[in-house]
Every structure is written in C-alpha cells, then in structure tokens.
Input
Amino acid sequence: MENYIENGIKKDIVSFGYEELLAEMERIGEKPFRGKQIYSWLHEKLAEDFSQMTNLSVALREKLDGMYEIKKVEVAARQISKKDPTEKFLFALSDGSMIESVLMKYDYGNSVCISSQAGCRMGCRFCASAIGGLERNLLTSEMLGQIYRIQKLIGERISNVVVMGTGEPLDNYDNFLQFVRMISDEHGLHISQRNITASTCGIVPEIKRLAGEGLQITLALSLHASNQEKRRALMPVANRYELSEVMAACDDYFEKTGRRPTFEYSLVKGVNDGPEDVRELTALLSRRNCHLNLIPVNPVEERDFERPDRKNALAFKNKLEKNGINVTIRRERGSDIDGACGQLRRRYADTKKEK
Ligand code: SAH
Output
C-alpha cells in the first residue's frame, strides 16, 4: 500500500487499520496488547507524539519514533464565525501542503467537513478548489487528522462527517475507503457510517466499486445540471461519463446499500435556474427515492458565476416541491469566514504569491 513505504522512510503509523497495526507490531516483535494500546493512543486518545504514550516503556516509545511517523496535521489558522456556530480550520501538513476543514455545530451534534485531496483535478467551472489543480492525494492519516485535531481542540465529540471539502474522494479511492473504515471502527472514534456522507462529481466506475464495499455511508452526487449538455459545460468529468450512466450508478448504489442518495445542485443565475431546468430535473428525479439539495452558488473571485436572488431560488425550490421532489435549499453558514468551498485555502495561496 502506498502509505507503507519502507526503504529508510518512516512509516505513516496512523494510516494502519486496527488489525493491520496489531500485525505490524507483532512483526517488529511486540506483543499484541501493545498494538492495542498504541492504536488506542492514536485513535481514541488522539496522541500527536509517541512521548505522550505514557503506558509504554521509554525504550518502546523511542523504537516507535525511530520507525514510524505520526504525520503532522497542524492548525495554521482558525476562524470562528460571528454569524453562526461554524468554524473554519486551515491545516499545514508534513510537506507544507495546506488543506481546510469546516466545523458546523448543530442541535444533533458536531459535523466536520473534511478535504480528501490537496487541490483537485476535476476542474468544475464554479469551484475555487479547481483553480490550482491537484497538488497530491491526502493520506488516510491526514483525513483522520482533520477530525482528530478539531475534536481535541473543541473538547467535544464529532458525530458527523461530510467529505465535501477540497478534492474528489473517489479520485483517492484506497485512502478514502481506509478512512471510512477507520473513522467508523469501534476501536477508534466509532462514528456511525450512517452519519458519514461522501460527495462525488460522478466517477462512474468508482461509484460502482463503492457500492460493493458493504458500507452504510450516504453518497452525495454533484449533479448541478438537468441534462448532459449543460452538465458538460459546468463539469469536465461529464465528458467522460454520460448523465444516464451516472444516474444508473447512483441507482446501483441505492439498490446495493439501501442508502438513499443526495443530489447536489449549485444554483447559478441564468445557467441552470430556469423553468426548463425545473421540468428536466423533475423528469430525472421524480421516480427516484432521493433528496435534492440546492446550493445557491458561492461566487468565486476568479469566476463570474452569480447566484440567483433569494426569491428566485425559493420559487425554483417550490416548483420542484409541487412536482413531488424531496428538495431543500442548503442554509448558508460561515459566509463571513471564507466558509465556502476552498476559499480559505485559496486566500492563503494568494497571500503567499504576493510575498
Ligand atoms: N469533489 C466532490 C466533493 C468536493 S466539492 C464533488 O464534486 O462532489 C463539494 C460540493 O461543493 C460539490 O457539490 C461541489 O460541486 C460544490 N461546490 C464547489 N464549488 C462551489 C461553489 N462555488 N458554490 C457552490 N457549490 C460549490
């Protein structure tokens, strides 16, 4: 596996699953209960350094430190919204890459939106994360680390996870899958898979693969258009997969997992908010057991997409509702803290350029 490079490089210990870590500890001559203790330090007590593992001997801590690395996910900036219970975190990784995560507090619990890649290569026209392209995939430990750092900082349990930050999770499939297994593992934070949502731009073969993994996570599909032609104009990935194939893959996911998919639709003024879009969306979704989430597009400086007026967005939603579609408008949060879609990371990249 790509996380476990040996040849002189310290291994990324946080990316080892429970059974994998026990096997690894056995391999280096340690008793299985040591592996259990170490897993608990890493994934329950959220230790950031081997020196914190006080029930291990100093010799063992030093041995571990010589062979393994706890990859850094360090808070570089934290912005707390004055408008709603939302916080944004900019994290610095071991190699200097920057990623962002958002914490949203709800009545039902604390939800964290994490990034799955540094940058993204999907190129969606309205998305700030697409602008700089893909830097690299995140390791499983770096996806876990975003949640671990936030839970530790706020001193409260994280109960929900959305993989909707920067990056395309299905373009980093193995590390993403390992992340889902580990964050829901009973030996770690044990977050229910039913409280995890992963959003994809629609990589058809990977959606089908995910459907067969025996998971209970919710799939969110970034639809954004009601027909193939419009979708292609907004999302380059639609050049690879026809809308009909994407919809069939979502049906397959629902059949295999019993989890009702969510469709996300960024409302863009004059582009996908007309009466013909209501008609086409209705035809596309009315016979499907699904939920449609409308997101008035967040304007990105480098792009000239505008969001419809509140009144028009509401009218769009009401028409769909009348047509029997299960639809909501996503409530905006953290707009005063670059809360949306890769904006904090971009701001950071811009200030670096100016220096
Ligand atoms: N790559 C995944 C997940 C990351 S983006 C995906 O494409 O789904 C998370 C969601 O935010 C996606 O639905 C994406 O299309 C949407 N999004 C990106 N930029 C946006 C913007 N400027 N305004 C509104 N939604 C945006």
In short: The pocket of S-adenosyl-L-homocysteine is lined by residues 122, 124, 126-127, 164, 168, 199-201, 222, 264, 266, 295, 297-298, 300, 341 (CB under 6 Å). The mean pLDDT is 94. The two ends are 38 Å apart (CA to CA).
